[in-house]
Amino acid sequence: MQTLTSVVGGRALPAGGRTVRSLNPADLSDVVAEVGLARPYEVVGACRTAKEAQRAWAAVPAPVRGRVISSIGRLVEANKERLARLVTREIGKPYAEALGEVQEIIDTCDFFLGEGRRLYGQTVPSEMPDKQLFTFRVPVGTAMIITAGNFPVAVPSWYLVPALLCGNTVVWKPAEYAAASAAALYELFTHAGLPEGVLNLVHADGGDTFAGLSDALVARVVDKVGFTGSSRVGSRIGSLCGLHLQKPCLELGGKNPMVVAEDADLDLAVEAALFSGFGTAGQRCTSLGTVIVHESVHQDFVRRFDAATRAAPAGDPTQDVVFGPMLAERFAESYEKYLGWIGDHPTYGSTGVGRITPDNPREGFVGDPAKGLYYHPVIVDGVTRDDELFRQETFGPIVGVMPYTTLDEAIELANLPGYGLSSAIYTTDPAKVFAFRAGIGAGMVSVNNSTSGAEAHLPFGGNGRSGNGSRQSGQWVLDEFTRWQSLNWDYSGRLQKAQMDVATIEPDLHFRLES
């Protein structure tokens, strides 16, 4: 076990009196780390330190900052297996998925290392002689980044890499239950040559984080907030930032629909539903929420989905399994509430419902279920538009299924919960694809692919209850961490007034061709 504390300006803060333990959810007797928690004033202090370091970091030429990003990618690549094993141990993500998560950091760095040479502005023609107009991307300043722990290293990299590349300094507050993974990623970033104070790591609980952020905004030492987490907390952060006329980058929850049309490849759709519904034990923001299946194939789909889910290996995440445990105790407690929403609906997918124990076993379980926070996967058939299970995000291994008659009805059902992160349709008809794309409110649409999965060069983000329209990844995230600055340079030697001192060329608008 290691003891972790916040690191500000390159120096570890004293442990203080308040600590929490990060436990291995696959084996609750395994304490991964003891974590010292910062107080609100220490959160503010970290932001102040980052603010003081920002001008010097912004003065480093952007191509040089890009080379630092390249070095981060190479360090992560060299430590890929070690970091993935730590992620698996700390949050219970199957090792194959953890390797994919670490690869996403590498891909992100590979994309953004070149963006240091492409932080382009534009030369804009002026309406007056002897005058030039320009635009520039400039750093926002200091960013406070608050991330969840279901993707403890990949999602933070979506924020940290572009923010640092653009010349911002960062205070990063990771989830307490993923503190060891965060500390490891912080070490890899700083060993790439980041100056002290450019990246700061703060461990704090939710209440003190919010209080510290509020005080830092008042003190004007935070210029941008990035948050990945629940819609409820994201709404509070959005309101707080709005008081200070700031637009945060909010990546929130999802109730992601998958429409299965009557002409779909059902085996392919089932494979996608299994991966997106139960991968990471259903604890992704892009996890499948509801499968909306055409009535003509509804029963056949449920039968196949049930068989595939029952056959999926579950258990010890260090083994070859589809999913492991819940991330932490608090997610297990929340999931128990979601199970109460099933009501009288028929369930499929496993040999039981609820926590997997010797008295409530799952056939084929890998390992010892008594050690960890393992739950049966649940397919709930016949959900309706009035069910809480249909309307609310359910963070865990539970997927609803409902029939539809027309595609318009399916699109209406897909939009009804009000989330708008990810969506999918399975069909062989291009007309259905384009009708679905035009009608769905989600920021991301997949065709014959699952709701989960992101590539480092494509915009990631949602609308409605899933976010405020901000986007991560690819070139689009540059707009989150830079501001446009315009420059007009008049070298005429006189004051030229726009819209007033503009030369005019008079046309003869009365001219007509002879018939």
UniProtKB/TrEMBL annotation:
<dbReference type="InterPro" id="IPR044638">
    <property type="entry name" value="ALDH7A1-like"/>
</dbReference>
<feature type="active site">
    <location>
        <position position="251"/>
    </location>
</feature>
<dbReference type="InterPro" id="IPR016163">
    <property type="entry name" value="Ald_DH_C"/>
</dbReference>
<comment type="similarity">
    <text>Belongs to the aldehyde dehydrogenase family.</text>
</comment>
<dbReference type="InterPro" id="IPR016161">
    <property type="entry name" value="Ald_DH/histidinol_DH"/>
</dbReference>
<dbReference type="InterPro" id="IPR015590">
    <property type="entry name" value="Aldehyde_DH_dom"/>
</dbReference>
<feature type="domain" description="Aldehyde dehydrogenase">
    <location>
        <begin position="18"/>
        <end position="486"/>
    </location>
</feature>
<keyword id="KW-0520">NAD</keyword>
<dbReference type="GO" id="GO:0004029">
    <property type="term" value="F:aldehyde dehydrogenase (NAD+) activity"/>
</dbReference>
<keyword id="KW-0560">Oxidoreductase</keyword>
<dbReference type="Pfam" id="PF00171">
    <property type="entry name" value="Aldedh"/>
</dbReference>
<comment type="subunit">
    <text>Homotetramer.</text>
</comment>
<dbReference type="InterPro" id="IPR016162">
    <property type="entry name" value="Ald_DH_N"/>
</dbReference>
<dbReference type="InterPro" id="IPR029510">
    <property type="entry name" value="Ald_DH_CS_GLU"/>
</dbReference>
<protein>
    <recommendedName>
        <fullName>aldehyde dehydrogenase (NAD(+))</fullName>
        <ecNumber>1.2.1.3</ecNumber>
    </recommendedName>
</protein>
